[in-house]
Design goal:
By secondary structure, the chain is of the alpha+beta class. The protein contains 2 helices and 7 strands, in the order ββββαβββα.
């Protein structure tokens, strides 16, 4: 793996893992608080992340808290159940807030239209 990945501990603000053979085209993993992160990794790069996680006795995790066993197989690790529940609750609250604001805009639109109609009928005719 050392010929496929390199570690730049001097990168700021967080150390980086990258593919030296790809030069400026390399995707980057950031090492932050003991976790490796990559934004939208390609399948090849995700495969390297899974392999590296295996060597480190760690897990490669996706945006939705799924843990990768391989490129084709994921699961939800028991340690992440609370995080998944918290994310689901935040999502429900956000959806509720969006629906509430949507209804407020609809009601305000109807109210303004009714006020314009009333004003027209009362003062212009």
């Amino acid at each position: 793996m050392s010929d496929r990945l390199a570690f730049d501990q001097d990168a700021q603000p967080d150390p980086q893992v990258y593919q030296p053979a790809r030069g400026d085209e390399s995707e980057i993993m950031l090492l932050e608080d003991g976790e490796l992160w990559a934004k939208n990794p390609s399948e090849e790069f995700l495969g390297l992340m899974i392999e590296l996680a295996g060597l480190l006795g760690a897990r490669a995790r996706g945006d939705e808290f799924e843990t990768y066993r391989s490129l084709d197989e994921t699961y939800h690790h028991p340690d992440d159940r609370e995080l998944i529940a918290q994310a689901a609750e935040r999502s429900r609250k956000l959806a509720s807030e969006v629906r509430r604001k949507d209804w407020m805009v609809r009601i305000a639109t109807v109210g303004v239209a009714a006020l314009i109609g009333w004003s027209y009928a009362r003062f212009i005719k």
